[in-house]
Amino acid sequence: MTMRNHMNSSRAHRGFSLIEVLVAVVILSTGLLALAALQGSLTKASADAKVRTQVASLLQGHLDQIRTTGYPAPGTVTDTCATNAGGDFVPTAFCTQNGLAGMSVTRTITRFTSPAGGAFASPGNATDPAQFARVTLAATWTDANGATNRRLAMTSDISALALEDEIIVPPDDSGQGGQSPIVRQLTPATAGVIPIAMGGNDATAATNPKPELVGQRNNQKVVSTNFNVLTYTNEGSNIVRVQRRIENSLVKCSCQYGAGGTNLPLIFRAPQWPAIWTGDAYEVYKPDPAATAPGATLANPAGPTPGVDQSALCQECCRDHHDVASNLVKFDPERTTNGVSKYRRDNSNALVTVNPTNNQTYLNACRVIRVDGFWRTAADTYQRQFGLLETETVNLGQARTGLPTATATTAYTGFVRDYLKQYNGTFASGPPISADTMFNTPSRGLNNPSTVLIASVSATDYRYLHGRGLYVDYLEAKARQRLQDVLADTGQRGRCPQTPTATPIEECILPYLPFTTVNLTEIAQWLASDTTVLTVNSRNLLATNPAQPSGSRTIGRKIGTSDNTGSARKSNSGIAIIASVDRNQELIDLQVGGVDPTDDSDIASDVQPFLVGGIVTTKDSFDVRVSGGGLAPRVFYSLNLDVGECLKPANSDHRCVTNSILPLGGSIRLENYWIETTTTLSRTTTCLFNGSPRTATDTIPVPTFRNYAVTSVTRNGSAFGTIGAAANDGKTSETTTITFGSVGANDLLVATLTEQAGSPTYATIASCTTNGGGNQINNIVWTKPWTLP
User: Can you tell which superkingdom this protein's organism belongs to (predicted)?
Assistant: First the structure.
């Protein structure tokens, strides 16, 4: 017993054996060596990443230099640390500072051209203006650790035509295709937009036209009308997948023969053929055999008249929009009278013919669309029908918004589909049954209401109409053949299957037909037959709210009857609008007709009768005082379905005369409370002198935007309502809505505005010219962030 206890005690106090110690040392040494190796790898990787970042910065800097120093010439050149090739874009100091050896960069510039539109090709013909230069920089180097397989490459596409933020990449050199990108957005079917179903879950719609403005606040001019035509698939939850987007800009221009600008790069002054619909897309026409575009037959291509504020796209319009009577494809193929003459207006506003000689000015109207990323002058658009749609009733008052009723919208989409299914590929300019005849068929119910009733004379009971234009392009031979092929492909898996279940003919045709319907309410001219009974606005404010348009807005002045007639010319000039300027500058104002005699006589119209009653009633009202901010704020009220603008007589508050009995809950919306002015500042920028970049410094008036926010609202001196977040903050379209539980008759609401932090904002110079000394900045084109989308 004693022996067993002794043995157990000895085993309990025994230490580590030598073998155990050696094993522990080996394990510890292995771990330490692994940590040391990891530390070395991390250090090496960090150094490699740092060098790679420096190389990337070097390549990006050289790409930026190429973009700013002119259009690059094609070719390949290799520069190294030790050489000085191609402008020494691999400086020796860079290699030394970063411990690089044997670094070289190969610069390859490939020119892609498209002489008469169509596909890009490389190498480009030396006589054609380059449209793309693809710049590839490929760097190789040996790092400080002796690794020789270090590589980095960058590619960028540069184009003198890339005037905006979109660049279309030329064909992939590898020739390998891929899936098309998917573009999703919120549904375009917003207020004032009428989608046309194309079959299945697909639809097409034109966005509401928007004016483009140039100039400063009190001198702004409308220079174009812009809208997009979208074809899309509904994916639910208010999201659509865009299949095709056609960007349209309708411009009216003052042009001058010989003003094409010899100082401009060839790419800007080389006339193009029209962009035409091929049955699947718009492409620039390419004649076979090859022939020069009609604008090139002039002694010197036409260009925008100098000194006139107009759209930048007038460069393309004036240069391209010319026809020769014998040409198979024309910009204006349906113009059957007056040949191909151009016109200007004399001092009595009459159109007179202009001879195509240098310095002669004339009027022009063009549709300019995006084709493969470039703005191209398209063949003219043609209006096939103009009609008025019944608008919404509010509080038993007819036509109290500018939005079509659901019934009218459904009837109109049915009319459009029925009319367009007649395009079977045998008609170039239109089907056998006129659109007006079909629109006016009584069973369609599109001529409602027969009369709009205004119960009583009122200066604030606004009524609105909705004018709609249906446009279909002239169909050239290729587009007509495409339609014939589609309609003949009737097999079960064809494009127009009739078995086992027949596809409606219109759903076969619409995807291949260049058509759209456009909200023309703000563009059409509106005229009361008896101006003592009705006061009618005619596109003088260009409002952007389709529910409360400026065009067509009507009030009853006295008891009686009067028609309100909407009309629009059927050509390009019927959509393109421009603000009035000096007659000597040859631009047409909002109320003057087209650009040739055919335009002036080819007008579509529709009539809505009104009846103004004789009962004058007293309606509840309240006042809104806007304190601070701009000098011309606008106020709108909304009380359940009762909506309207609060008028502001001179030297008084906004008077909100409602069609309701107060008190009621609702809201008021403030607009136009910003200020745009100018501030004299010194500016240094890069301008052009004789076509070359030059740094210029000058003291100039800079457009300045002062932004305000609604900071408090009171009612009769007490805090009132809830101030919502400003919509489109920092833009001229900014609005603020104040909601409230109840406003009473004769209440006074005071909205106080305070200039926001960060205000003012200054415009930046997009382009300019300078003198030889670089001490003047002239011909400035401003970028105003507050007017951008």
Answer: Bacteria
